[in-house]
Amino acid sequence: MTLPPEPQVSPHPTVITDPADLRAALRGHAVAFVPTMGALHEGHATLIRAARAAVPGGRVVVSVFVNPMQFGPNEDLSRYPRDLDGDRRVAGEAGADLLFHPDVPTMYPDGFSTSVSVSGVSEPLDGAARPGHFTGVATVVLKLLNLVRPDVALFGEKDWQQLAVVRRMVRDLNLPVDVRGVPTVREDSGLALSSRNAYLSADQRAQAAVLSRALRAVQAAYADGERRGAALRQAGLDVLTTAADLSLDYLSVVGSDMHEREIMDNDPMNRVLVAARMFGVRLIDNMPLAAHVAAGQSTVSPA
Ligand SMILES: Nc1ncnc2c1ncn2[C@@H]1O[C@H](COP(=O)(O)OP(=O)(O)OP(=O)(O)O)[C@@H](O)[C@H]1O
Ligand SMILES: CC(C)(CO)[C@@H](O)C(=O)[O-]
Ligand code: BAL
């Protein structure tokens, strides 16, 4: 008699809500950390696999915390997708050992009065479009780093400006952690994976791939030798005009300080970033601008 194959059992990471339990579980181990807001997808799984590879034999911690401090009053905090069972499965399959899932009063007890504000890189783009957002991000990331005390922390390049803000904070405050950026994971259409894609239908997601096509058009113009900021930007805008139901926040070509340039030099940190509302959902994406980089590929993380 032939037995049916054993079902694949995915190892589920332990869920920890109490910071003291987290400290006890991590004492004496090398730690790699992936901060998230949950609703984990293949982009997060890629970060977790990179974390696993960074500390062979150590502990991989994924935090799932929808941080109220980084949402504006009219943003999607209350409807942000939440799926802790799914998160355990995705995190476990990618190699996480622990899932840290604190509640809001644990992170922001009564009387909480401190914030971390990073000037400069936080100010344009999403900093301008979402006032207070990066202060909320920097504050919670510093708190999470203090709670987890990782050797390595991994962030996605999909949130390029966030990565720059975190790197600036880590340098400015002498935090003992190695921050690593991980290239953006995309659907075959080019659409960057994002938890907020869950708000879109399959047809809307296909249409949202116009954002990555616009970025690729800017990359192609740059590769053809165009260095004028306005002309590079126009190459992307020409693609976006073909889209239905798109309201643009920004499409900007920037250097490492996240500010626009009139003329782009050959800095490998040059980037084109876009943020737009499509079908009522705010989506962001970015790609590198470097003469030798093929469209869609990545180069280096913000220094
Ligand atoms: N497609 C992706 N490729 C690589 N990293 C990603 C991708 N999507 C998210 N990340 C990274 O995962 C980490 C956690 O992000 P988060 O939980 O906010 O997910 P998200 O998909 O970015 O959600 P949102 O839809 O809110 O932007 C961040 O460092 C983020 O940059
Ligand atoms: C870094 C982060 C987990 C802070 O809440 C969040 O901004 C995110 O998921 O990118
Ligand atoms: N990944 C970015 C989290 C946010 O949009 O608040």
UniProtKB/TrEMBL annotation:
Localization per Swiss-Prot or TrEMBL: Cytoplasm
InterPro entries named in the record: Pantoate_ligase, Pantoate_ligase_C, Rossmann-like_a/b/a_fold
Signal peptide: none
Gene Ontology molecular function, alphabetical: ATP binding; pantoate-beta-alanine ligase activity
Enzyme Commission numbers on file: 6.3.2.1
Record: residues binding (R)-pantoate: Q70, Q162
Protein's pathway: Cofactor biosynthesis; (R)-pantothenate biosynthesis; (R)-pantothenate from (R)-pantoate and beta-alanine: step 1/1
Keyword Cytoplasm assigned: yes
Binding site for beta-alanine: Q70
Biological process terms in GO annotation: pantothenate biosynthetic process
Record's catalysed reaction(s): (R)-pantoate + beta-alanine + ATP = (R)-pantothenate + AMP + diphosphate + H(+)
Active site positions, chain numbering: H44 (proton donor)
Enzyme class: ligase
UniProt entry keywords in alphabetical sequence: ATP-binding, Cytoplasm, Ligase, Nucleotide-binding, Pantothenate biosynthesis
Function of the protein: Catalyzes the condensation of pantoate with beta-alanine in an ATP-dependent reaction via a pantoyl-adenylate intermediate.
Additional remarks: The reaction proceeds by a bi uni uni bi ping pong mechanism.
Subunit composition and interactions: Homodimer.
Family: Belongs to the pantothenate synthetase family.
Protein name: Pantothenate synthetase
Species per Swiss-Prot/TrEMBL record: Deinococcus indicus
Source species taxonomy: Bacteria, Thermotogati, Deinococcota, Deinococci, Deinococcales
Gene (name only): panC
